[in-house]
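3-phenylpropionate dioxygenase
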Amino acid sequence: MTGPLPFNDERHLQAHQFLVDEAYLLDAQQYETWLDTLTDDIRYEMPVRVTTALGAGFDTSPGMAHFDENKYSLSRRVARFRTEHAWTEDPPSRLRHYITNVRTFACEDDAHVVVESAELLFRSRGDVNESALVSCGRRDVLRNDGGQWKLARRTITVDESVLRMQNLAVFL
């Protein structure tokens, strides 16, 4: 992979637009529509961060993840939101996904791009719970599927070792 594409490159503009549109869908909790923006072979993961000594060579716990999902498991999570068993999201959270520092990289084939971004998620639930923030970096692979970009892989790297959010029922 070479350096990032220029900001005026058509692939960068399309990838950035994809992320902005995705953030809107997640904020509006339009999860069924969001699922349509994912490839059938999506891998959606968030490794567990650990604090290690300088030079240890790793900062995630091998084999451990807050989630490591595919299209089926993501669709089951979305379907659960529509049931009476989704107590983690009843009442629904108020969400705001802030996406910034977007850099796009060309791949060997024209059907894929790698997109790095930073995200800050604001989440508020109910009237008595304190709001929560999650800061993370994301590394995505977008695939051009019939002229439309879709998310093929997302690796989320949170900036904290200990998450201060009540649960991870939301998508980053």
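thats it. The two ends are 25 Å apart (CA to CA). DSSP finds three helices and six strands in the chain. bye
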